[in-house]
Amino acid sequence: MTDWNLGTKNLRIELEGPIAWCIIDRPHARNAFTPSMYFGLKKAVKLLNASSDARAMIITGTGDVFAPGGDMGGRYEEGDEQVPTGLTYEMLPFLTIRESRAPIVAAVNGIAQAGGLMIAMMSDIAVVSERATFRVPELLRGMIDATYAATLPVHIGMAQARDLLFSARKIDATEAHRIGLISRICPHDDLRARALQAANEILQTAPDARAHTKRMLNQQYAQIDYQTMYMSILDENGEAREGMRSFMEKREPNWVPKNLTAVE
Fold first, then answer.
1. d(CA 11, CA 22)
2. Is 0.70 surpassed by the pTM of this model?
3. Higher confidence at residue 73 or residue 247?
């Protein structure tokens, strides 16, 4: 039996036969990730790959939110385990999800932004409710997201990647499916069954052959420039700090031009 202690009360595992459901459950903060939640998700994938009970994992959220990304306060909650510092592969779960030998399916039940959308992208298959919405908002907060810069063009092409990154606009499930950001869309009430179907389909394929195929697919991604991303966050006078302050103070950041022309 696997001990599924993930170091945070805001992630939980429910086993359904050979499928482990990893449920993001922090409703009081709209499922925003604390550092312990990010690291706990990485831990869940590692435990899955070492498990004798589970053969695949489905990641989903609670309520009308899948995951909106990291908590801008960066805070821990009572009972959270301390985790490695810095937004690198040592703490973040994205590459661990991408490289998992055991299949990972994202069942996107609602809002998926920033790190939440990245989890869906890095999963083997993303099954998405028709109610889901997507956004890459990092540049609105002055944050350089090196993972998106390296991965998004591979998924949807350079033109669409530039559009989503530079405009930071919200798109619905229909547009996300049309541009290839996600692969499957379904009625909201069918999401659980359709996610299970996707996991079952993957488990019909040969594990070793699948692992080699995944390795070759992952070679299509560019190198991730974590150093630039991390140094921008550490800069006390930089845009990331101003972006976080303006978000917490509910004001426009200082780089937004005055008297922008409103578009009807």
1. 7
2. yes
3. 247
